[in-house]
Amino acid sequence: MAKPTHIDMAKTPQESRLDELIDTLHSGQQLTEDEMAELEAMLSADHEARAHYILRQELHTMLEVDKSVRLQLAIDELPDHILTDDFADEQVPESDDTPAPAPKLSRSSKEAFRMATSIAAMIAGVIGMLWMYVQVEKFTQIEAANEAAKKKAAESEVAAEDEPEKPGTDLKEMKFDMVDIFKGTTKLIGL
Amino acid sequence: MPACDLSHPSFAELIASHQPRLVGYIRTMIADEHAAKDILQDTNMALLRKKADFEPGTNFTAWAFRIAYFEVLSWRRNKGREKVQFSSELVEALAESGEQMAKNYDTRLEALKSCLSKLPDRQKAIVQRRYLSGESVQTIAESMGFKANAGSQLLHRARQNLFQCITRLTTGS
Fold first, then answer.
1. Do B105 and A58 touch (CB under 8 A)?
2. Which of B47, B49, B146, B158 has a CA that sits 20 to 30 A from residue A85's CA?
3. Going residue by residue through chain B (173 aa), what tens digit of pLDDT does each one get?
4. Could you give the domains of chain B?
């Protein structure tokens, strides 16, 4: 037997009883034989009671089964800030033709980017200086070797006038050993 | 028996979109939730079997309701003897009223969606948990800090408010 759930002063006792029986059905319980007979009597006698019963069954079914109603319930369940506050400061283009604003970096991203740029510039500067140093060093060695070769050639010019001149090292043959440069660079920056 | 052709999307869509109103219609005649779902499945099979009988452009709801009504009668003949059920006269009267009232189903559905947002917070919460999450009234009541009977009352008031709101919106009263 369904227990009375509440008293509604706007309804007659019979209407309240009809709602109680419908609520029992909607709670998933089976009505007893007496309750079914009671419900049958109410619905058979009164066209309005029948319409009320049908509409209440329909409402229960809409809530339980209809996808659009369930979607509405799910949307209502979302906290308001998810739908509004978080997006309050976002700039939304007014129409499809309006280009969206370029994505902006956050403050922390900007700091990190600035620091990375500085470090990269510093490393590039060190590599450049090292490269220049190696070039000058090699140039000096080649010049010294050339001078020594010329001097030696001049000294032996008379003694060995018929012998072919030995080729000296020339700037055109200068080769840069990039492996040495990078080894030097990594040592210099302490990696 | 006509071939069951599922390749007809509009027919399949019609059946799918009519599931809520079909089960609601069956429930009015069979006061048993589980039996109503079984009869809905039988009705769906019958609709597919009789697809060739349906003339596109005619009233699908009325046609589908008629088939559902015959499935209800069949269930009552075969399995309904074991259960307490309404008389044949009342089932016929409910079927007739149900078919008439189904004409404004879409209007009431739209009204319901509008009414849901107007419910007081606690009533809305219990409706969401009962119908969307499928929780029992007892579980919801316990988590909200009151007894099961008070939970049933709260849900009852929510349904009543929704019902009255739909009636106001659809009848203008």
1. yes
2. B158
3. 444 555 554 788 899 999 999 999 999 999 888 899 999 999 999 999 999 999 888 899 999 999 999 999 999 998 877 778 899 999 999 999 999 999 899 999 999 999 998 999 999 999 999 988 888 888 999 998 888 889 888 998 999 899 999 999 998 76
4. 9-103 (1.10.1740.10), 117-171 (1.10.10)
A28 to chain B: which residues are within 8 Å by CB? 33
Q: Are both A23 and A70 inside the same structural domain? A: yes
Same domain, A114 and A171: yes
SS (H, E, C) chain A: CCCCCCCCCCCCHHHHHHHHHHHHHHCCCCCCHHHHHHHHHHHHHCHHHHHHHHHHHHHHHHHHHCHHHHHHHHHHHCCHHHHCHHHCCCCCCCCCCCCCCCCCCCHHHHHHHHHHHHHHHHHHHHHHHHHHHHHHHHHHHHHHHHHHHHHHHHHCCCCCCCCCCCCCCCHHHCCCCHHHHHHHHHHHCCC
**With an 8 Å Cβ cutoff, are B19 and A65 in contact?**
yes
